[in-house]
């Protein structure tokens, strides 16, 4: 996936400003507004000026773009500015496909997440089909980075999907198994911090977020769906959160979103008892927006998404903000609480036994 240094320095920022002056092609108003907003956020922080009048179109558009960045930290805005300028430079590919990382910037396992951008859609694809797209520690980090980049790129919507027969089998259970006994507490603490940052990136994501569920989904990729704006599923998809079986507890804000979406009784069947739902059941319970026959799934869904991606991008973002903003504070609090509880669960005997069972089942096969 495309990546530059995680934190752009003042020098990188200055270089990007100079690079911008050398552009030979007008990047268009939308990009210029993004650059303006990121520059203001990076240098002054969150929007702090009075809203211009409705008739002051240009200043109003600039103000809206800056204001839409909310409380994005200055350093992140600086990084996003540098990334955006770099994507516009003449040396960048003319295609909107996100380039693979340069050899010296490539992180181990970075090919496990593929990010592309086309037709107004940024697609983030789990690409580890031989392991059913199980998510490793480095994949969590790459997804956080990809979401941050997508929040200010040119696309209208962002879509998650999986390569191969699975959407994703959730957390890679070996994340916790290659750990020496004396560093287990530290590993649990680090995992809890990472999980919190990961889920926060979904809570704060400003554009419509869509899941294209191509096959079975397990664990965290299911719980996160409560934070998505639309979920399209193939009829061969299933939805499974086997937390109790694993000695764990819900994450991804599902302890809050699932009871709201499907009612407490149905949420309990999934989150406490680990009932696996078919796509049809998940749709009947409101977790899935629509189910498509596997034979026409990809064609129908991507055609629809391309149409949606042509809608005015600011309007899409603003409508999402209206729908979601009241919940943000609550969701961050729920996320923090779930991560704290999980950190304790990962150190429990129940969880250790479940992980050992998974490993021994693997070694017998
Ligand atoms: C730091 C943040 C932490 C956030 C926490 C999140 C919680 C969760 O996400 S809980 C959910 C965890 N996931 C699971 O419990 C699923 C475990 N996997 C399975 O039960 C099965 O593999 C399967 C039902 C998904 C698929 O079974 P199937 O028989 O079709 O295929 P397998 O031969 O089992 O799998 C192929 C290959 O993939 C490996 N694999 C699959 N899932 C995972 C996984 N989650 N973690 C690690 N590895 C996984 C499996 O071991 C096989 O590998 P080998 O070919 O090397 O044996």
From TrEMBL:
<dbReference type="InterPro" id="IPR051053">
    <property type="entry name" value="ECH/Chromodomain_protein"/>
</dbReference>
<keyword id="KW-0007">Acetylation</keyword>
<comment type="function">
    <text>Able to isomerize both 3-cis and 3-trans double bonds into the 2-trans form in a range of enoyl-CoA species. Has a preference for 3-trans substrates.</text>
</comment>
<keyword id="KW-0496">Mitochondrion</keyword>
<keyword id="KW-0576">Peroxisome</keyword>
<dbReference type="GO" id="GO:0005739">
    <property type="term" value="C:mitochondrion"/>
</dbReference>
<dbReference type="InterPro" id="IPR035984">
    <property type="entry name" value="Acyl-CoA-binding_sf"/>
</dbReference>
<dbReference type="InterPro" id="IPR001753">
    <property type="entry name" value="Enoyl-CoA_hydra/iso"/>
</dbReference>
<dbReference type="Pfam" id="PF00378">
    <property type="entry name" value="ECH_1"/>
</dbReference>
<dbReference type="GO" id="GO:0004165">
    <property type="term" value="F:delta(3)-delta(2)-enoyl-CoA isomerase activity"/>
</dbReference>
<dbReference type="InterPro" id="IPR022408">
    <property type="entry name" value="Acyl-CoA-binding_prot_CS"/>
</dbReference>
<feature type="domain" description="ACB">
    <location>
        <begin position="9"/>
        <end position="94"/>
    </location>
</feature>
<dbReference type="Pfam" id="PF00887">
    <property type="entry name" value="ACBP"/>
</dbReference>
<dbReference type="InterPro" id="IPR014352">
    <property type="entry name" value="FERM/acyl-CoA-bd_prot_sf"/>
</dbReference>
<dbReference type="GO" id="GO:0000062">
    <property type="term" value="F:fatty-acyl-CoA binding"/>
</dbReference>
<comment type="pathway">
    <text>Lipid metabolism; fatty acid beta-oxidation.</text>
</comment>
<dbReference type="InterPro" id="IPR029045">
    <property type="entry name" value="ClpP/crotonase-like_dom_sf"/>
</dbReference>
<feature type="region of interest" description="Disordered">
    <location>
        <begin position="88"/>
        <end position="110"/>
    </location>
</feature>
<protein>
    <recommendedName>
        <fullName>Enoyl-CoA delta isomerase 2</fullName>
        <ecNumber>5.3.3.8</ecNumber>
    </recommendedName>
</protein>
<keyword id="KW-0809">Transit peptide</keyword>
<dbReference type="InterPro" id="IPR000582">
    <property type="entry name" value="Acyl-CoA-binding_protein"/>
</dbReference>
<dbReference type="GO" id="GO:0005782">
    <property type="term" value="C:peroxisomal matrix"/>
</dbReference>
<dbReference type="InterPro" id="IPR014748">
    <property type="entry name" value="Enoyl-CoA_hydra_C"/>
</dbReference>
<keyword id="KW-0597">Phosphoprotein</keyword>
<keyword id="KW-0413">Isomerase</keyword>
<comment type="similarity">
    <text>In the C-terminal section; belongs to the enoyl-CoA hydratase/isomerase family.</text>
</comment>
């Amino acid at each position: 996936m495309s990546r530059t240094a995680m934190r752009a320095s003042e020098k990188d920022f200055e270089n990007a400003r100079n690079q911008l002056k050398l552009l030979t092609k007008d990047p268009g108003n939308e990009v210029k507004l993004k650059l303006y907003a990121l520059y203001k956020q990076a240098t002054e922080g969150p929007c702090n000026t009075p809203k211009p009048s409705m008739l002051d179109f240009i200043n109003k558009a600039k103000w809206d773009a800056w204001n839409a960045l909310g409380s994005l930290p200055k350093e992140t805005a600086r990084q996003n500015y540098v990334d955006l300028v770099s994507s516009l430079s003449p040396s960048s590919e003319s295609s909107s496909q996100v380039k693979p990382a340069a050899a010296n910037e490539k992180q181990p396992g970075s090919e496990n997440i593929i990010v592309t951008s086309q037709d107004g859609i940024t697609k983030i694809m789990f690409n580890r089909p031989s392991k059913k797209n199980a998510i490793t520690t480095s994949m969590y980090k790459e997804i956080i980075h990809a979401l941050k980049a997508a929040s200010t790129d040119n696309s209208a919507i962002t879509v998650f999907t999986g390569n191969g027969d699975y959407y994703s089998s959730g957390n890679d259970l070996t994340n916790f198994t290659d750990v020496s006994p004396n560093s287990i507490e530290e590993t649990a603490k680090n995992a809890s911090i990472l999980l919190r940052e990961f889920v926060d990136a979904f809570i704060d994501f400003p554009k419509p977020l869509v899941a294209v569920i191509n096959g079975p989904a397990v664990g965290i990729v299911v719980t996160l769906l409560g934070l998505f704006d639309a979920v399209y599923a193939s009829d061969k998809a299933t939805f499974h959160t086997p937390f109790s079986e694993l000695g764990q507890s819900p994450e991804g804000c599902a302890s809050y979103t699932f009871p709201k979406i499907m009612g407490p009784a149905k949420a309990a069947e999934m989150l406490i008892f680990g009932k696996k739902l078919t796509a049809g059941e998940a749709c009947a319970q409101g977790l899935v927006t629509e189910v498509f026959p596997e034979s026409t799934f990809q064609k129908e869904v991507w055609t629809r998404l391309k149409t949606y991606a042509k809608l005015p991008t600011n309007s899409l973002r603003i409508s999402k903000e209206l729908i979601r903003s009241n919940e943000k504070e609550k969701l961050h609090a729920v996320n923090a609480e779930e991560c704290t509880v999980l950190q304790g669960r990962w150190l429990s005997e129940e969880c250790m036994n479940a992980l050992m069972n998974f490993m021994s089942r693997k070694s017998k096969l």
